[in-house]
Amino acid sequence: MSSFNPQDLMTRAFIRLRQSGFQLGVGEFLAARQAVEGGFGEDEEALAETLKILWCHSPSEQSQFDPIWESLQMSSTPKNPEKKPPVKEPKLESDQERVEEPQKLSSPPPQETVTEIKSKPELASLPIRAPFTPVENQDTSALQTYYPISRRSMVYGWRYLRQPIADGSLDVLDVNATIEQATRQGFYLAPVYRRRERNNAHLLLLLDQNGSMTPFHRFTRDLVETAIYESSLQPDKVSVFYFHNVPAASVYKDLYLTEPIKLQTVLETCDNQTSILIVSDAGAARGYRKLERIRATTSFLFQLKRHSSLIAWLNPMPEERWIGSSAEIIANLVPMYQMDNNGLSNAIDIVRGQPLQHLNSPFS
Amino acid sequence: MISTQRLEFTGNPNRRPENPHKDSPTNPEPYVVSAELKKAVNLAIYLRRPLLLEGDAGCGKTRLASAVAYELGLPLYRWDIRSTTKAQDGLYEYDAILRLHDVHTQKLEQQPPAAEAETEEEDEERVNRNPANPKHYRKFGALGKAFELKNQPAVVLIDEIDKADLDFPNDLLTVLDEPWEFKIKETGETITATHKPIVIITSNKEKGNLPAPFLRRCLYHYLDFPNDPKRLQEIVEKHYQIREEESPPPPDLVNTAIKRFLAVWNEGGLFKKPGTSEFLDWLKALHTFESEPYKAAQLAKDKLLPYRELLFKLQQDWKKYAKAS
């Protein structure tokens, strides 16, 4: 195609992909430019392939790329030399053109409506008709799942939960102390060893299970797995217990809520250094504001605070959904955070005993 | 000389140059490369960005690096990642204990320190180490060796990156980026790459995702299992063509084996799907394990898959095909 301009098409693809939530920076843009200059984009197909390799970093991103690319091509088709730019064309002509387009691109007739929808954003400055609304449904971001926190960031978050004390095996060579000793004695006798450091932090995880929490089981499971196996915590220093809605006189050892254990027994294992993290939507998922729930939670929290002051609450529901539900009230009793990257890191700051001052809620 | 012409990977091992580097793989790699993968490799060579290969185990991620290195006659340095690997291990290691040991033994033997002979042959195992020269005690890792090359770039394979520690990919990035250099603390040297290495990274997505800044730097290609009789046949042909000493299995056996294998593969319900390498092993067993090759007609009508221990590695999968279905 004589009008094919890879740099221009690439630039528009870059902007469009960024709008669709692709994490691309100037570096990627320059790399693509370099690739095009190096002959990796001699026609549209080759350019698409190049950009896909460069800019899409998972099969799902690659599949998102195709429709975006197609829509770009559609909108660039009217820029053929014999046609004027679409912006200046009256409605009638652009209608004709739309009929022609599918033939030109030899796409099957059922896609005709799709073509129209996709090409619309580029033709948007036409003053004749308001943009066809279904265009928003085509936005891939709407189809993405609610994914507040990745496993990786959980592992990162747990790293901050540590209380290193030197009580491991006596096998760390202290070079400075060795040199100092040798200088004092005037001769070298033996190296000085220190104890290996161990993470002494104790974590108590209390997880709401079933009911409105069912959609978040995936995240709570990840949270437990990362805390036990991928954090720097000692596996025996992580205790996980489950409850449903509100922790009552007993909580459960297993996630099917079949092995009850007295809450008092659990709390007896805690001291004032124990970090307690509660994961529950606190009624925000369904938007209820039940007095019994608030009352039960309050009494549970007061019981908890007698044992440890390092308590935080992670809420998998976004913060704007707390308002009007019991979560709003509970959030005043205990530092409550939305379960995303920031929330988890704030909650971990609280339970490690180093809260940021301005984030403290009045009761904690 | 190599640096002036543009390197291009075509998937044809016969294009290997006359005088390859001594660290280049010596055996041709039977590797069938798809057009997309070829393009990804060439882009990576051209832009000198790391190529991240993802895909199931046994689909030929690791083999690609030696195929590239063989064809281009470039040295291949392989760096297998373990859970304890640090980014610095790929650059250099410094043996301070050996230096201490040498100081003591030389004191005993009263050897005058050998005259400084600044040889540039760093790779060779040193016999006359001189404790006065700290350079004698550093040993380069895969990336360090690649950075040291003066005449041509190297292919560096970083195998199974997701095994490493959380910080590893980010640490690696600081080296694989401008200004392409690293410092050796013990000797005070700064090693700058004359030729940026061609880095191929494999990952089998065992655990979560790699950090976004790392992904953004890499080129990405997902290696699918060649779920197509023609592609599998091509792989088999190429495999036996290069390993000339083995006679290829009869075509009807290959065809039947491919058919049955793909049927199992596509049927679903497997916990761990066998990869290309498992298939090649299985084919070899069918062909040469017994004195007579397995009869193709027999294989087609066998209810029970022969040598299924080569294909299924999990109890559930094994049991599923143990029953004559």
TrEMBL record, chain A:
Segments of this protein annotated with the region Disordered: 73-120
Biased composition annotated in UniProt, kind: Basic and acidic residues: 80-103
PANTHER family reported for this sequence: BLL5662 PROTEIN-RELATED (PTHR39338), BLL6692 PROTEIN (PTHR39338:SF7)
Protein name: VWA containing CoxE family protein
Species of the source: Brasilonema octagenarum UFV-OR1
Automatic annotation (TrEMBL), chain B:
GO terms assigned for molecular function: ATP binding; ATP hydrolysis activity
Basic and acidic residues composition bias: residue spans: 15-24
Biased amino acid composition, Polar residues: 1-13
Pfam family, one: AAA_2
Domain AAA+ ATPase, first and last residues per copy: 47-229
InterPro entries, per the entry: AAA+_ATPase, ATPase_AAA_core, CbbQ/NirQ/NorQ/GpvN, P-loop_NTPase
Region listing for Disordered, in residue ranges: 1-29, 107-134
SMART domains, alphabetized: AAA (SM00382)
PANTHER family associated with the record: MAGNESIUM-CHELATASE SUBUNIT CHLD, MOXR FAMILY PROTEIN
Name of the protein in its database record: MoxR family ATPase
